[in-house]
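Dear Dr. V.,

Thank you for agreeing to look over these. As mentioned in my earlier message, I'm a first-year student in the group and I'm still getting used to reading structure tokens, so any feedback on how I've presented them would be very welcome. I ran two proteins. I've put each sequence directly above its structure. The first is here:
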Amino acid sequence: MSRPTRPALPTRDGVSASCVALPAGAWLTVLDFLCERIPAVSRADWHTRMAQGDVVDAHGEPVSPNAPYRAQTRLYYWRQLAFEHPIPFEERVVFQDAHLVVADKPHFLPVTPKGRYVQQTLLVRLKRRLGIDTLVPMHRLDRETAGLVMFTVQPATRHAYQSLFRDRLVHKVYEAIAAHRPDMTFPLTRHSRLVESERFMAMQEVPGEPNAETRIECLETHAGRARYRLLPTTGQKHQLRAHMNALGLPIQGDRIYPELQPDLADGETPDYRHPLQLLARTLSFTDPVTGQARHFESTLRLDWPTKGA
């Protein structure tokens, strides 16, 4: 059985259409279904969006608020938020050609839309700024992490670049600032098994076959802190943050390790004074399309913590 074809829907304000499948169920209308399955959007808001043509079917045709529910179909809509705190830091494009865009992401800016961030994300900002609807990130950085993120431009060559990351053919170098431990000898390599912790969002090391590896080098020291070079050979979630924490060297400004800090309440203004001191410094690989040796370097720098920070 062939998969349904996704309609060629344009982006709206840099946001691509999201898809939702309609399973078997007793909902009378599409509106009833959306209100139950995506309750973060109020019924009144869904009604308004549908009346404005912001919810469409698999043919790209608007679905009205009183449309009857039809199982085994698909709907498409464009995510939007009533309010987003503007993130007062700008991304910088460090490279662009017909196949790739490489951008320097500032701290606090998410890569893709999620939760309370849609317009204030690197992907949407770049789509609007460059006018390229087909941009897709090849890898992710945590919202708190700054540095290089690579995007592909053309669907036809996307798989070739995805294979680089899948086959671990991209050499990544990070930098971090954390406590200085005179009793520790560097460089060292941390091998461990990382799994999801019961503690919200966090990863933890457990016994078993290692699935994460990071080489750690100490570059310089200053006032009880050190600047470290981190070279991951695997890509587990929070790998660098978890490995540094496991060594007793949690990264400066980390709000998850060693202790999870309270998240912002709705409407609360973020505090940008203490960013996570973790930077995706360089990306290097052989371009699978052009055959060129690629090396990209972030223009951003980490700051030594001020006295009392």
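The second protein is here, in the same arrangement:
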Amino acid sequence: MSLRQMEYFLTVVEEASFTRAAERLHVTQPALSHQIKALERAVGGPLLERLPRGARLTAMGRAFLPHAERSVRSAAQARRAARAAAGAQGGELHIATVHAIAVGILPDVFARWRTAHPGVALVLHEYATTEALEDRIERGTADLAVGPPPDRWSGPVVPIGAEDIVLVVPFDDPLAGRASVRLQELADRFWVRCAMEPLVDGVPFLDRACARAGFRPRTAVRTEHTSTAVRMAAAGVGVTTAPAHVVRGAVGEDCAVLAVNPPWARPLAVFSRVEQAGAAAAFTELLAASWPSGPRTGR
């Protein structure tokens, strides 16, 4: 089987139609069908069910799909890495991360990268959860992932620093003049919860922390993004937690920030499927040097 055959197969799957796939690939439909049949012979069975008005995956096709995706993306990743390593004009480096990191620290890092490496473009992939981030980097969607170190990862993991997790309240909150607060003092408060809140052993981070402090947090509203949760907290909807580097970028100076006593921090790393080299290694070095807290943890 060839890489081109797998690319053709993925296009048919995405379009759910041989006709539309052929148009998108700029090939004739008979030529496309010939390549798919050759792929099915190599695999040993039908991958696609031909329907009067389209096509759908067979059981074999569903099993084959993630491996084909990984192969095609790995090939594209190899081409990008080679061009990026050479500093070639038009070379690309694909970075995957969660939204909070994308809006917090990466804008400044990307600006520095453009100055130092103008020939290598950066492409950002944002995900709502760390689970989705790990899944997509495993599938080869990006060259590097920036996020909490995965629990189980066979590839390289490079520590870059740690996020300080803070509490956000409006300026007129009774606690606004304090530098820090013990979690027990917030037992009667309402909270703004975010879908991006990390899980610890399958339990949301805030639920776990509050349980240790002897209470269960009361939820006022749930949001999809960290920046939205910060804005809600600044408006007085409820207390929220957020990485310190996100808060100013989300609402400027319109809120009060409190440290938790004892402090909360979350380690962060760059991880990838293969050893970092060329532009990938240069980006990791730049990110580590730019991180507000500097490297704190290792793995």
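From my reading of the second output: Residues 184 and 212 are 9 Å apart (CA to CA). The longest helix spans residues 59-85. Does that match how you would interpret it?

Kind regards,
E.
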